[in-house]
Amino acid sequence: MSQTFTKSMARNIFYGGAVFFFLLFLALTFDTHQALPKRDQRHLLDSATEVGQRIAKGKALWEENNCIGCHTLLGEGAYFAPELGNVYVRFGNSKEAIKAFIKSRPENGITGRRSMPQFHFSDEELDALAEFLKYASEIDTSGWPPSKQG
Questions:
Q1: Omega of the bond prior to 37 within 30 degrees of 0, cis?
Q2: pLDDT digit string, tens, across residues 34-57
Q3: What is the per-residue pLDDT for 28?
Q4: What is the pTM of this model?
Q5: Can you give the pLDDT at residue 26?
């Protein structure tokens, strides 16, 4: 190793590395574009289907009532109340349990504790919200949230 490191060698290493990492970037981008359709659930959001309409209505209720102001959904939102990305799993894969929980909320919350208010949703609205939360829990999040409790 008696050679000295020359400008030409440094330039070749730089250009070689730049080309290598650019090709690696292209390969990973291509792989991602191939994998996403397999993980996508957009077919469930087709507004022509009854389930798609309920999911869309549940999402609209989620937005209208500012649920993200207290809850997180897939890590986004406020950290005042529990994560809802896996609430369907936490409630035993039961939309009925989710609807019963939302219905059972006291009128003005629990004194001295943070608690969810009573929104007086109709049965149709509760079904739509539960369908939306079920849909959200079935999104492939690569293990997020890290625990069942959120």
A1: no
A2: 887 776 666 566 666 788 889 989
A3: 96
A4: 0.68
A5: 97
DSSP class of residue 91 equals T
Q: Residue 73: beta bridge partners?
A: 76
Q: 68-99, pLDDT tens digit by residue?
A: 999 999 888 888 888 898 899 899 999 999 99
Burial of 95 (0-12, 13-18, 19+ CB in 10 A): middle
Question: What does the alpha-carbon distance between residue 17 and residue 12 come to, in Å, rounded to a whole number?
Answer: 8
Domain count, the chain: 2
On whether both 50 and 122 belong to a single domain, the answer is: yes
Q: Are residues 20 and 58 in the same domain?
A: no
Residue 73 half-sphere exposure toward CB, CA atoms < 13 A: 17
Task: Give which of 96, 95, 80 is closest to 132, Cα–Cα.
Answer: 95
CB 85: neighbour CB atoms within 10 A? 22
Closest CA to 138 of 38, 39, 36: 39
**HSE value, Cβ hemisphere, 13 Å, CA-based, for 32:** 6
pLDDT (0 to 100) of residue 17: 96
Q: How far apart are CA 20 and CA 13, in angstroms?
A: 10
Query: Could you list the residue range(s) of the whole structural domain that residue 53 is in?
Result: 41-150
Q: CB burial class (10 A; 0-12, 13-18, 19+) of residue 81? A: middle
